[in-house]
Design a protein that fits this description.
Elements: H1 11-39, H2 44-47, H3 50-60, H4 68-80, H5 90-106, H6 108-118, H7 125-133
Helix pairs in contact: 1-4, 5-6
InterPro entries: A10/PebIII, OS_D_A10/PebIII_sf
Protein name: Chemosensory protein
Keywords: Signal
Amino acid sequence: MTSSVIYLFALSASIVVSVTCHKTLVESILEKYKADCEKVTDMEPFLKNEKLVTTHVKCLLGEIRCNLDGERIKKAILEVLPDACAKCTEKQKTIVRQVMQYMYKNRQSDFDKIFKIFDPDMKYKEKMMDFMNKKE
């Protein structure tokens, strides 16, 4: 489960420690992302900043090293995809929809490339597209 996983020596203890630490780290990152999302009232100013959007797109495509925000976005994408944001708050759903709609409308090629990276088998794309187009 983690990259630091587990030598044969003290295997059971190492697994418990590694899994717990990894889970705690991921949860901590996701909670920070969720808390940051709750502070955002409108994504439009961010989406109008082409340089910022391009930097995050390049990060997600693996073309450049991601900053902390980029890493949080990656983790959030992985959390949101499998259940089409079912665990998201209403505010988070609004933000995810707004970003997806912007990318789909204005940067379709990047939208498709990002989907292929995070959902290579396209298991979640139809459900996410339905989510994106849903009016709530």
